[in-house]
């Protein structure tokens, strides 16, 4: 089977449960939900992994897509991702993690392949469970916490009223960037999205 015919595993990182739904840390779930809607796919519990999964295609004849929301809490996200990568026979190079990023100003996107985890426990768990850091990352900037607030507390707070004014547009743009990576590749997408 050629690699081109294999699906892409797009992992939205976040925490399950209504109390976390609007948190900065849950931006990956928000993007995954939007992508599922675009693909006409619905999330349901996977029989092998502690995750919700939605399968679909990008457009007519576009690449196959397996959208994943791990249901283990952020720090243990890697286990379900590794299980699903094996189940769908997806190589690490066709895995995309969508996540919040403290070191990038609010609303900015940065895409990369591999590299460090920048203290992000979801990424750390994925790298450990996959035995590799060479997956793609779509990083949604949430900025640094104000004053002396602990970053661990900051990521578990909801977006501010000011931020929420733009959030829908920014989630939409992030979903566009994910689709672009799958269809046009990382370099093209970096050139298109890193300007803004």
Can you describe this structure?
- By secondary structure, this protein is α/β, with parallel strands linked by helices.
- It has a single domain, classed as Rossmann fold (3-Layer(aba) Sandwich), CATH 3.40.50.1470.
- It has helices at 27-39, 78-87, 121-130, 151-154, 161-184, 186-193, and strands at 8-12, 44-45, 51-57, 64-70, 95-101, 109-113, 136-141.
- Strands 2-3-4-1-5-7-6 form a 7-stranded mixed beta sheet, with helices on both faces.
- Strand 2 (44-45) and strand 3 form a beta hairpin.
- Helix 1 (27-39) crosses helix 5 (161-184).
- It is globular.
- The termini are far apart.
- The mean pLDDT is 95.
- It holds the Pfam family Pept_tRNA_hydro.
- Belongs to the PTH family.
- GO terms for molecular function: peptidyl-tRNA hydrolase activity.
- Its main location: cytoplasm.
Task: Spell out the key features of this protein.
196 residues, alpha/beta, Rossmann fold, seven-stranded mixed β-sheet, 6 helices, globular
Largest sheet: 7 strands, mixed
Number of domains: 1
Counting DSSP E segments of at least 2 residues, the number of strands comes to 7
CATH class: Alpha Beta
Strand order of the largest sheet: 2-3-4-1-5-7-6
What gap, in angstroms, lies between the N and C termini?
A: 38 Å
Secondary structural class: alpha/beta
Radius of gyration: 15 Å
In the CATH hierarchy, the third-tier topology is known as Rossmann fold
Q: Give, in order, the helices and strands.
A: EHEEEHEEHEHHH
Provide the residue-averaged pLDDT: 95
Question: Roughly what fraction of the amino acids lie in strands?
Answer: 15-25%
Low-confidence stretches: none
What is the general shape?
globular
Q: Helix count, per DSSP?
A: 6
């Amino acid at each position: 089977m050629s690699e081109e015919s294999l699906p892409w595993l797009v992992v939205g990182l976040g925490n399950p449960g209504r109390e976390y739904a609007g948190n900065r840390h849950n931006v990956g779930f928000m993007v995954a939900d939007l992508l599922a809607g675009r693909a006409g796919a619905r999330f349901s519990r996977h029989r092998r992994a502690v995750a919700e999964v939605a399968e679909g295609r990008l457009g007519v004849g576009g690449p196959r897509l397996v959208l994943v929301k791990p249901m283990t809490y952020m720090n243990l996200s890697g286990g379900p991702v590794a299980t699903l990568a094996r189940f769908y026979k997806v190589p690490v190079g066709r895995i995309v993690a969508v996540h919040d990023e403290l070191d990038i100003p609010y609303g900015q996107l940065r895409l990369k392949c591999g590299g460090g985890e920048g203290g992000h426990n979801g990424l750390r768990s994925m790298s450990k469970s996959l035995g590799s850091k060479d997956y793609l990352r779509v990083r949604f900037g949430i900025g640094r916490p104000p004053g002396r607030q602990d970053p661990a507390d900051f990521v578990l707070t909801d977006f501010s009223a000011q931020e929420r004014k733009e959030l829908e547009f920014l989630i939409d743009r992030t979903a566009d960037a994910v689709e672009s990576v799958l269809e046009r590749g990382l370099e093209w997408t970096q050139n298109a999205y890193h300007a803004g």
